[in-house]
Amino acid sequence: MPDRDSLQFAILGPLEVTAAGTPVSLGGAQRKVLMTVLLLEAGKAVPIPRLMEVIWGDSPPEGALRTLRTHISELRRVMGDDKPPRMLPRKGAGYLLDVRAEQIDVERARRLLAQGRRAVDDGDPVSAIAPLQEAQSLWRGPPLVDVADHPFAHGYAEALTELQLDVAKTRIAADLSLGRHREVIGDLRMLVARHPHDDGLRRELVVAFYRDGRTEDAARACRDGLEALHELGLDSPMLRRLQEDVLRGAPDLAWAPPRSLGRPAQVAPTGSGGHQLPPDTPEYTGRDTIQARAHAVLTDQVALARGTVTAAFAGKAGAGKTALAVHIAHRIRAGFTDALYVDLRGTSEPLEPTRVLARFVQALGVSRAAVPTDPDDLAEMYRELLATRKVLIILDNAAGEAQLRPLMPTSPGCAVLITSRSRLHGLTVPYWMVDVLIPSDAVELLAKVVGAARIEAEPEAARDIVGLCGYLPLAIQIAGRKLAAHPHWRLARLAGRLANERDRLSWLEVGDLEIRASFSLSYEGRPADEQRAFRLLSLPAVNDFAPWAAAAVLDVDLDEAEDVVDRLADAQLLERRGVDATGTERYRFHDLLRVFARERETGVGTAIGQPASTAPSAHPGSADGERAGDGHDARSPAAAPEGGAAAGGGDGHGALDAAKPDDPPMLSGEHRAALSRLLYAYQVMLREAVDTFSPGRVRTLSADGPDAGFAAQAAARFARADLAEVVRQPLVWFGGERSNLLALVEQAQAAGLDQPTWLLAVEAAEFYAFAAHWSDWARTHVLGLAAARRTGHRLAEAELLTSLGEREIVLTFEEAFWRLDAAGADPDGEPAVAVTQGALERLALATERFARAREIFAGFGAELGEARAVRGLADACRGRGEFAAALAHFETCLGTMRRTGARRLEAETLVALAMTHGDRRELADGITCLTMSLSIARELANLPLEAQAQRRLGDLYRYRERPEQALAAYNESLPLLAELPDPLWEPRVLVRRGDILAQLDDHPAARRSWQQGITLLRQQGSPELAAAEDRLTAPVTTEPTQFTGGRLLGAFEPAYFIARVAASRRSVRLLNTWTDLVAAPHRDAFTDAVLAAIDAGAIVQILLLDPDSPAAAARTADLSHRIDVPAEIRANLLVLDGLRERLTPVLRPRLAVRLYAEQPLTTYHRWDSGALVSSFPVGYSSAAATQHEATISSTLVQFVEQHFERLWSPAGSAALDDYLRVPLQVLRSDADPVDVRAEFVRLDGAVYIASPELAALLRRSGPDGLVAAVAGNGRHALSGIGRGRVVPLRDDVGAGVVATAFTQKYGAARDGLLRLSSVRS
């Protein structure tokens, strides 16, 4: 991407944008019009209606706004405008091009003209020539030639033509002043011919003729001018006087050398120089790294000898920027002859640079009377004074680059220290952001102010004070001075006062120091829209936020929200936290700034909905994680009594569960709306994350009444901003937002926003259950339950009771069976109540909740809700050992789920039913249930559900003494668990797989599996680690029981393998260069076997060699060219692609084909319980080689499985569909992008395409043609080619080679071939 400072824009001729001299392609005509009008109005916001008018005229087409946004996005992309602050931001109801004036040729021309004109006026034409020549060179043709036929451009074009004439006139005036009369006559004649009525130009032509000794031509030029004006009925007294002067030879017309510049005389200083440094701060603390680096820059003697050195600091109010600059200045003062300091008042009423220059020259010894009044003379005096001195200058509290540039010296030996609230991006100097102090330095600063003895006496209170001050140096100094003024106060007293947000800022006042006043300077200097955003964004009780959340609070589009928060961050009113794991920029308030913002909005410093008299309490999801609620690790239950009152025991068993909430506080309409918009934005994002993570959820609750509008608005904003990408990794997104969700649920319930309270709680239960966030699950649901009861929403109450009951079931089985250190095993016929003491109480609580929920659901006729409650009752029966009753309940709820089409609920219930069959030793029925659950999970593409069913299949086999089958199931579940990822169950399954391998006497493999699980448990700090490590202490043997097992076959037997494929229900894998199985005479039998396996629930994975790889050609040579290996593979691929097309879209992912490129090592034909393995013999096909038949648990097969998994990964192979087709996004200048999948070949680095759809688009495209870019996830082999222009393939000699390549790859000729020709972007 181009660097924004390297961009140059030219409109004095054809529109041109360059980056470091390289042209940047903008695209079609519409984008050129858009860029032109933005350049003409650079620095000003151009309203969207105005942009649409200049592009499309009075009648923009339907979808014009969407196309405009696409154009804006593309302009940002080609200009590398992807990081804040943006060059092309959204500003109010329009867009603004924010670039420096020097980057636009017309602005440079104006600046150069002003420079040249000033030199001419000062009598220095020599200095005028260079800038005027440079200005003239900027015209490359008629201005705005690309948009000349657009009405909006006519006025601008005329103005630019006048500017060109003005430059020419000034240049000619400079040349005449220098005596270049003869040289300018030609230019003057041309200009006079173009502008015959411009008597000023005519005068210059007459003077040039006269001074060149051509008196007759001069007189004739006067006559011609007067006659031209006379034809218009005009006269020119000036030309008449000039005519008379020519005829009488007036001496005034003769040339005289230009006068000298008349520079002001050197001013002798009247004093000894400037010594203006403020006093150093005696208690200055911290910033050691910044100090060291800035000191090195400012004392670099080599750099000082070359010119002025500069260091700059930026940071929020109270961060200590000035103190740092002054402290450094005192350390280096001895190396300079003079020191100057000025507060530029950048946050209030910025000082004019000329006023500062006047101060500085007086400080350097010039008397007040000798200070020039002309700004240019003053600047020149300043530079001359610095030329013979080594001056250290502190420019404190700068407003911006324009204020600083006149004050910046250029003389060698000078150094400048700059401070500002915002980072000044226009300055190319070393810059450091001054943030808050680290905790240890903050306590040290407090100790220096208060005294070390008081800090040592109350260290905890000292840490609390600096923490409540947000580690901000100014706030800590104020707190310290208040304590120093009251030596009898205990530190805990001040800490207690600061803990109350309502009065916190009032307590941070002492003498003339006040943190509130410091913040006010930053706040008051911002525009009204930023002030409003600053206030409203402080109201939600979140730790940080993303731009989409800000858009919801402020009720603006995402682009506008991004621009507003970026500007607030630049102004140091918000902090940038960086980009989170989803790729989204995040922002937060400093604690004291948040209190200040809330004061400005509500009059108190607390969040809306929060009592003002108490400080916000820590909650799970903060830095303490789950320990705040559980007292143990977040991922596993422990001895803490979560079912009791502290966790919301409920319904007579827990105070919180049954509590009636207090009446909520009254909120203003704007505050209620802002918080509601945010809550429903989170609900929409959370819903999208849940559906992405675990598809197929059936919901029984939705917003109604007045809240329905907020929900609809949130959904529309989500779709408009295309936020699905943000939750593309749902677990990552939820992990980042978890603490915010809990805080918002608490705030919503306290503020009386009841519907979003329970809707967020119910939606988040999916992730709470998966990730074992037991405390969050309880806390949100207890609050949701209170909100539902407050408004009498019975269905919400039933939903929350059901979820709380499910939590008790999960915790019961966790403690009894699922943890690695649990006493019981699941399933083994022994109920949970016989294993753990607390199980009976938990199950009783769960049963009560399910029964109440069932009663409510039944009363409303909510069948699915009632079915969920019945399923919960079945789980409770199973936990008590009432297996027959559990089976009856499960069958009852399954009937409802099947009747209503609730497929995901059905699959989840089938897993629980399978475990009940396992308890009853009904293995076949359990396997049937899990097979059905797997089929539904795959149909829904629900990875968590598939992983659960697969690992539970392993549990079922394990406890029914089927170790081989258990091992196979665990092996198949582990890739799924790793893909999610599931940090709870992946290590558990790895450890249990090791148990199975040890049972099979394969101890080396067992230890490897245990060690893998232990590594994950150790990374998580899991309390189950000790139980896993105990496995490693058992005695082992170094020899596995079996390497291959089974038998040896003299050659590959297709019929034998095909029969096993047909009987497979879980997994079929094939690894080879090519396979005879899809060629005659085996094709039909193999195809039928694959379809049968897929129908039965198997996943078929086939790895073949890439026919275009060097390895394929090498294998052909190895076979002495008797077999054309690439041709065989291509034939295989076409058959397999056709077989995939026969499958329904739901089943198609179950047959996957990938192509690897590395040298083949082995062949592999695997079915559910075994595999055939062979090596690649030299000189003949692997089908003729000896085949080793082995069980899945054998070391040989496990080794090949690992090899297969490595090749199957995206890094090791490419998908068949990517080999046969390339996904293209076709960009058109006059319409929306179109997605096309096209066949392709690549020859000698060029890409050729066959696509009837693309060919048709090309025929219909305008003169700009089509530009296409490879779409998708970046893994396609062509992803690196960038953008290309789609052009027809010319019918020449090369076309025949391309056509042959398509025939070889696809088995048939292709018509209408195209070429993807690279374009520069």
From TrEMBL:
Residues 1-99 form the OmpR/PhoB-type domain. One of its GO terms (biological process) is regulation of DNA-templated transcription. The keyword Transcription applies. Residues 258-279, 606-668 are annotated as: Disordered. Pfam families: BTAD, NB-ARC, TPR_12, Trans_reg_C. Residues 1-99 bind DNA. InterPro entries: AfsR-DnrI-RedD_regulator, Apaf_helical, BTAD, NB-ARC, OmpR/PhoB-type_DNA-bd, P-loop_NTPase, Sig_transdc_resp-reg_C-effctor, TPR-like_helical_dom_sf. GO terms for molecular function: ADP binding; DNA binding. Keywords: DNA-binding, Repeat, Transcription, Transcription regulation. Residues 624-635, 659-668 have a biased composition (Basic and acidic residues). PANTHER family: TRANSCRIPTIONAL REGULATOR REDD, TRANSCRIPTIONAL REGULATOR REDD-RELATED. Belongs to the AfsR/DnrI/RedD regulatory family. This is DNA-binding transcriptional activator of the SARP family. It comes from Frankia torreyi.
